Amino acid sequence: MKRNTCFPSLPEFTSLAAGHSHVPVCREVVADLDTPLSLYRKTARGPYTFLLESLEGGERWGRYSIIGLDPLLVFCQRREQVSVIKAGRSDIWQSSLDPLDQLQELLSAFSPAPVAGLPAFYGGAVGFLAYDVVKKFESLPNNARDDTGFADALFMVPGLLLVHDNLKNTLVIVALVPVAGESDLEGCYGRGLEMIDRLL
After folding, report:
1. With contact defined as beta carbons under 8 Å apart, do 82 and 102 qualify?
2. Spatial separation of the C-alpha atoms in residues 165 and 65, rounded to whole Å
3. Whole-number pLDDT of residue 49
4. 31 φ, ψ to 5°?
5. Cystine design at 22: which of 2, 95, 146, 176 (Cβ 3.0–4.6 Å)?
6. Least confident of 23-32, 49-58, 156-165
């Protein structure tokens, strides 16, 4: 992959930090030799990663393929047990609340700054709700046997995204850098660039 441009600039990053919890630091590279799947296979490490395709309507090919890595937050609910991994710390508690309400509460402080040049989705929660979660929304009998061991809800917020533009054959690597409460924004910007450099 050939290096191209980094954005936003440090002054733009500093300006965007006001009023946001995270600011994307991005580098665009030419990606004409890689497919989204080959990129995913090269970069996905650990249990919490994804490859998301951006098909709309009746399209056959989506413009963007988005790979999510290095979670900032992982939310998992299995029956009444909720676990959250955030900043390397794991918390577990019991709750019978709707998993989407709990996730929304966790994400209430997540406010990534908008950066020109990125697709509509460049960070946020990605995951799934299992079929039986409908019992949290509708009054249904709860007599199904749990024989799979799968989570009822599992979502992650990636700290690093690879956005493959299938039209332009480019890849934008996005590091979502936490800035809330930070005084050394230049250091934050540098950490974002380091995250990207480690991937390249």
Report:
1. yes
2. 7
3. 97
4. -135, 45
5. 176
6. 49-58
The residue type at 82 = V
Other Cβ atoms less than 10 A from the Cβ of 67: the count is 23
- Residue 40's Cα: distance from chain center in Å? 14
Contact status, residue 158 vs residue 176, Cβ threshold 8 Å: yes
Query: What CATH number does residue 164 fall under?
Result: 3.60.120.10
Please state the separation of Cα 65 from the chain's center in Å. 13
Tell me which DSSP letter residue 18 carries: T
175, 25 Cβ separation under 8 angstroms = yes
Total of domains in the chain: 1
Instruction: Supply the range of the domain harboring residue 31.
Output: 2-199
Q: Each residue of 98-120: pLDDT tens digit?
A: 889 999 999 999 999 999 989 88
